[in-house]
Design a protein that fits this description.
The chain contains 18 helices and 28 strands. A hairpin with a 4-residue loop joins strand 14 and strand 15.
Length: 560
């Protein structure tokens, strides 16, 4: 029986403008009549003529409304000429897995259902983003087009009568207006696990994890925080690498993440930090809701900053077979990320790029063959194996470095600092602040720091003085296609290389999140306590920005 396409009249909704990585709003916003339908139709329309006869990947992090949204996307895709959908079983796919599937199947792109590290549940957040044919997040020009279409939309198309059960793996073929439409519900884990086996030496890692090569099993605590990585973690760490069942926790994806805030940092992954601090663990790791972010800690909860994590992996790429086979190109980091990897790049004679926050800015450099390893201070690390940051990949990279060196995480870091010096780094997050005073704060600060007399000015606190070398609102010209991204964060660089960076985050669903980043380089004094070493700069940053006055906050929500 041929199914018919229905055209449904609709009106635009305000505010369907994708942020740093997609559209994120409260579940109650997405579940309004026509809200999700409008946005999905605009994603499809933004692909233009390429949509007809295309293949798309669909999946998400399992949060509340994920399964229902996936089924709705199937019906809308059927009504818009898509030929085939690859849908994760139960609508579940990690963001790195979506990127891998797009690339492996040469799909036009993928629709990812996630609000990443934001809380889930009926009262919390949902999100939708589009990844392009290279597997990476849609670039600014594409998302700007989605937003433009969302302000003009008059109708959407769907096949209302299409019944689909995405809980069972298998292929279903439908006749839609005389054309075949195929939905393949796939094992969420298989493709990604195969990719990891190609990148890392699982035989060597299995011997290391089991203790066969060292005489002592590696004691791990891997925390999926009730997000999407649970099935991936169980298959890789338990089934393939032979870790004990007790090595993994919170591996069942839950619509509300079991009440956890699925953001892998020292505040929200406190259970992991406390457990590792009290036990005799060798490594602890946590992932966010959709599996692209990671936090690494060593024995006694020795914290590895994302900036240091990127630099250490860059230094030890010989420990990962993928780079032996494919070579080492350049490195990159987001602008707020401390410049530890720059020092490694300089030693190895590799290009190092500084880009705006948002993984989409790495994609062009990877596609052009100029970048193989990159990271963001917001707990994102990855390589050119896909076009997304990849939490599980980062943990496998660290275990490979531990196996290669025979050292603990703390000793690996201390050796790295003795060779390169240390970039002390911290980030203060002030979450869900009122938007208007935050915009006023940023405008006031920008006016102050871009005044001609600001360069050369000195600031003192705690017995330390800092002289301003450069101050601006960061902009970036892509060296591949010359596209320009402006207003990417306020930046003050001091003569000694220390920096203050402030930006409003584009990943929240309500209000404004103010992020304040402080980093300071020390060549000799590398074993200090970061909070003590950075306090003078933090006080100066609060003075320059007048943050307590504008936000009404005396302390951040999260300190990293």
């Amino acid at each position: 029986m041929s199914l018919s396409v229905e055209t449904v009249a609709t009106k635009p909704f305000e505010g369907q403008k994708p942020g740093t990585s997609g559209l994120r709003k409260k579940v109650k916003v997405f579940t309004q009549p026509n809200y999700t339908e409008n946005f999905v139709q605009c994603i499809l329309d933004a692909n233009g003529a390429a949509l007809s006869g295309s293949t798309l990947v669909v999946g998400g992090d399992g949060r509340y409304y994920c399964k229902e949204a996936a089924e709705l996307i199937v019906r809308i895709s059927a009504g818009n000429g898509v030929a085939k959908l690859l849908v994760g079983q139960n609508g579940i796919l990690s963001t790195p897995a979506v990127s891998s599937l797009i690339r492996h199947n040469k799909a036009l792109g993928g629709i990812v259902l996630t609000a990443s590290h934001n809380p889930g549940g009926p009262e919390n957040d949902f999100g939708i983003k589009f990844n392009c044919e290279n597997g990476g997040p849609a670039p600014d020009a594409f998302t700007n087009n989605i937003y433009k279409l969302s302000t003009e939309i008059k109708d959407y198309k769907l096949v209302r009568g299409l019944q689909i059960d995405i809980s069972k793996v298998g292929v279903s073929t439908y006749d839609v207006a005389g054309k075949p439409f195929v939905v393949e519900v796939i094992d969420s884990v298989a493709n990604y696990v195969r990719l990891m086996e190609e990148i890392f030496d699982f035989g060597k890692l299995r011997d290391f994890v089991s203790g066969k090569s060292t005489g002592k099993p590696l004691k791990m605590r891997i925390d999926s925080m009730n997000g999407v990585t649970g099935a991936y973690v169980r298959e890789i760490f338990l089934n393939r690498l032979g870790a004990a069942e007790s090595s993994v926790v919170h591996t069942t994806p839950l619509p509300d993440f079991g009440g956890l805030h699925p953001d892998p940092n020292l505040t929200y992954a406190k259970d992991l930090v406390d457990t590792v601090a009290k036990g005799d663990y060798d490594i602890g790791a946590a992932f966010d809701g959709d599996g692209d972010r990671n936090m690494i800690i060593g024995g006694k909860a020795f914290f590895v900053t994302p900036s240091d994590s990127l630099a250490v992996i860059a230094h030890y790429l010989e420990a990962i077979p993928y780079f032996q086979k494919n070579g080492v190109q350049g490195f990159a980091r987001s602008m707020p990320t401390a410049s530890a990897v720059d020092l490694v790049g300089k030693k190895l004679g590799k290009e190092v790029f500084e880009v705006p926050t948002g993984w989409k800015y790495f994609g062009n450099l990877m596609d052009a063959g100029r970048l193989c390893l990159c990271g963001e201070e917001s707990f994102g690390t990855g390589s050119n194996h896909i076009r997304e940051k990849d939490g599980i990949w980062a943990v496998l990279a660290w275990i490979s470095v531990m196996q290669h060196t025979g050292k603990s995480i703390e000793d690996i870091l201390k050796q790295h600092w003795s060779e390169y010096g240390r970039n002390y780094f911290t980030r203060y997050d002030y979450e869900e602040c009122d938007l208007e005073p935050c915009n006023e704060m940023m405008a006031t600060m920008e006016k102050s720091i871009t005044a001609p007399e600001f360069v050369g000015k000195s600031f003192s606190s705690g017995g330390k003085s800092y002289k301003v070398k450069q101050a601006d609102n960061f902009s970036y010209t892509d060296p591949v296609d010359n596209s320009l991204a402006t207003k990417q964060g306020l930046r003050i660089v001091f003569v000694d290389g220390s920096r203050i960076v402030m930006r409003l985050s584009g990943t929240g669903s309500s209000g404004a999140t103010v992020r304040l980043y402080i980093d300071s380089y020390e060549r000799e004094n590398v074993l200090g306590q970061a909070s003590v070493m950075l306090k003078p700069l933090i006080d100066i940053a609060l003075e320059i920005s007048q943050l307590p006055k504008f936000t009404g906050r005396n302390a951040p929500t999260v300190i990293t």
